Amino acid sequence: MAAPKVAVVGAGVVGLSTALCVADAFPACALAVLAERFTPSTTSDVAAGMLIPHTAPGTPIHVQKQWFKETFTYLFAISNSAEASEAGVHLVSGWQVFKSTPGEELPFWSDIVLGFRTMSEAELQKFPQHRYGQAFTTLKCDCPPYLLWMEKRLKAKGVQMYTRKVENLWELHSEYNIVVNCAGIGAHQLVGDQQLFPVRGQVLKVHAPWVKNFVRDGDGLTYIYPGISSVTLGGTREKESWSLSPDPSTTKDIFGRCCSLEPSLQAAQEVKVQVGLRPSRANVRLQREVWSQGGAKLLVVHNYGHGSGGFSMHRGTAKEAAQLVGECIAALQDSSSRAKL
Ligand code: FAD
Description:
By secondary structure, this protein is of the alpha/beta class. The protein is 31% helix and 29% strand. Bound molecules: flavin-adenine dinucleotide (FAD). Flavin-adenine dinucleotide is lined by residues 9-15, 34-37, 42-44, 46-50, 165-166, 182-186, 190, 201, 203, 234-235, 276, 278-279, 304, 306-312. D-dopa binds at residues 223, 278. Belongs to the DAMOX/DASOX family.
């Protein structure tokens, strides 16, 4: 049988990492990435890129933990290599603070991040409105450099990149044997997934190089995440809002909330305001399907719906999607050897 032709649709953090895992696991495949938008114009470019998971209600905790662990281990190795600055991956320490002690004191990811502990009374004095806090070190991706770094690695492996809007996955059946759907919120239209909905997020990128520690309010709504070239201030979570236009009153509100957590931000210079739509659903859709029409077949693997946690989980879900691609390749080989009998 000829080398299987595989297309990954989507060039956000999920599509590019999935393409990398497929290229590594199945180097004989002819692999292409097709996307309407590449960096710096994807939702993944807007993200803060922090590795702090959010719990997805429809996925067992042990599975989410495994995805996070694989992602953390992978990025930790990059942060500890000569590639770190080009890939935009670095360690960052800081605090998650709460106005009252949370019901669940130990989140499921507490033994994966580094040095997780309860904050001391002395540390809590920095946050007079908060009663309880957790200190830890985690990883952060500077998103556009990380996406570019993945693109560069894919091109070096001979993977083709095409700017193309796909109207229906079936339109790819004459060119590819296997299609991997990593379209993020685009999957709502692309495969008509009504369980997928946007959670709009607005963030500010500011210049404040003196801010070295992250601060996250335990409700997850207000956060200060220092990166390599800017500090991300957030945020909002607006369910079912499709608007990509920044709202000036929201910008003011985010800035005020962040200044009350870190007063030195009053002196920060605003660089840009960005909006992105988190591709949300009760669970990530990681699934294999066979589509057929009039005797023709297309093998489809879905990997989308990462909501607020695309960066935190991407490597784990990409590996699982690559395994599903492996099952598709085995099915193709099986049907080709049967046809020869
Ligand atoms: P996307 O980045 O949206 O990529 C989808 C790709 O599919 C794009 O290339 C698009 O052009 C392509 N596409 C879509 N439809 C089609 C089509 N029909 N044809 C061809 N191509 C198509 N997560 C974290 O883990 N940590 C954080 O700190 C964090 N902060 C965030 C802050 C904000 C404000 C927002 C909005 C999100 C944040 N997230 C964070 C979540 C994270 O951004 C997402 O989970 C992640 O970006 C989803 O990646 P994706 O590759 O699935 O989607």
